[in-house]
Recover the amino acids of this structure.
């Protein structure tokens, strides 16, 4: 059963998806549903024995192309809609123990190309207003399958966090005739203390307003609204910057670093968003090697984050570990 | 890196329960070998 239920106080949709309670949960490696099916072996989702990248509809989707009618009747203050949309799984590689940080640069770049293709294909559907590409990595953020993969949610509406960013960007543009994110990246670049890694075209930084100790934004230095606008050279440079950042994360506590990685880009609702700026956001749950940052009373109850650390200090930690420039990433990545 | 890259091919298939699946393959990329597990830090320590 799945449906969209309206939250009248926050004025946003909540997705119910009760079938997801039964999804595969941390299976043994031999029963990984994202590995290629071996002859005579456990039948996985993927029947070919090798592939570069695979994308398929999630078996336990929150949103469906042909959703069932809501199981409850809407009222004036409790609107309900069917949960139409698409949920995809993106399998980065057939290698079960690989991680995005460990993938060679050309395969990271291939993944970017697939994300670009999915953004355009899903975004071209008339009922899809927003395409959210993300990866949950590590059990600390609730991962149920360890095989390297990410997800795509194609929404029939613009999600609330994106809507908030769009409004802030539009307001700044109206007042300053400039992009808010370009201004932010420029300020971070001029200040320098929070820059973690940079290439010719991209910068990764712990934002001034970081809510998580090791939160990082990764953004193009020039104004690009979505993956659709990326040139081949942009994809090359993004692959290097992404790998550089992820290697740093893994080195920080000498472990495969857990994170939530999301890509924010322009909606696909047919309108123009000249003032919106593509970027990645990383929310790592660790605040030390062994301690988690929880979203507790203030964060969950009031919506106000408390960060027990300073962005300038955490950025320095990340900047000073691992590759310092693109040459060092290239040396690792080919 | 760009000079080595070609466009990908994508092939659609349907799973037994009707869901779609896309295979993406990149022309210039050799098929990855199933190599021995390595930790990110082993790789990165060489910097």
């Amino acid at each position: 059963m799945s449906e969209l239920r309206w939250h009248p106080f926050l004025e946003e949709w909540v997705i119910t998806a009760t079938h997801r309670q039964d999804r595969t949960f941390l299976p043994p490696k031999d029963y990984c549903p994202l590995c290629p099916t071996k002859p005579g072996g456990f039948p996985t989702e993927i029947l070919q024995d090798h592939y570069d990248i695979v994308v398929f509809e999630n078996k336990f989707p929150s949103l469906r192309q042909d959703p069932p009618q809501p199981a409850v009747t809407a009222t004036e203050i409790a609107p309900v809609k069917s949960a139409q949309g698409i949920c995809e799984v993106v399998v980065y590689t057939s290698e079960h123990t690989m991680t995005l940080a460990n993938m060679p640069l050309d395969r990271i770049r291939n993944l970017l190309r697939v994300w670009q293709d999915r953004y355009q294909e899903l975004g071209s559907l008339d009922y899809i207003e927003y395409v959210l590409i993300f990866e949950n990595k590590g059990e600390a953020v609730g991962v149920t399958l360890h095989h390297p993969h990410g997800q795509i949610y194609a929404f029939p509406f613009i999600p609330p966090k994106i809507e908030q960013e769009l409004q802030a960007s539009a307001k700044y543009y109206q007042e300053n005739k400039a992009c808010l994110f370009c201004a932010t990246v420029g300020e971070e670049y001029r200040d320098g203390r929070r820059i973690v890694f940079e290439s010719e075209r991209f910068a990764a930084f712990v934002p001034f307003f970081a809510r998580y100790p090791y939160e990082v934004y990764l953004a193009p230095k020039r104004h690009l609204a979505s993956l659709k606008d990326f040139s081949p050279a942009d994809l090359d440079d993004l692959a290097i910057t992404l790998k550089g950042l992820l290697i740093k994360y893994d080195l920080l506590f000498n472990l495969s670093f857990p994170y939530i990685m999301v890509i924010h880009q322009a909606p696909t609702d047919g309108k123009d968003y000249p003032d919106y700026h593509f970027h990645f956001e990383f929310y790592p749950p660790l605040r030390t090697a062994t301690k988690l940052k929880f979203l507790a009373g203030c964060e969950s109850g009031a919506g106000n984050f408390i960060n027990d650390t300073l962005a300038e200090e955490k950025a320095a930690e990340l900047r000073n570990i691992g590759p310092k420039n693109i040459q060092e990433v290239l040396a690792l990545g080919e | 890196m760009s000079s080595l890259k070609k466009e990908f091919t994508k092939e659609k298939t349907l799973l037994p329960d009707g869901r779609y699946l896309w295979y993406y393959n990149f022309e210039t990329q050799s098929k990855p070998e199933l190599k021995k597990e390595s930790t990110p830090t082993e790789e990165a320590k060489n910097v």
Remarks:
- The two ends of chain B are 20 Å apart (CA to CA).
- DSSP finds one helix and two strands in chain B.
- The longest strand of chain B covers residues 8-14.
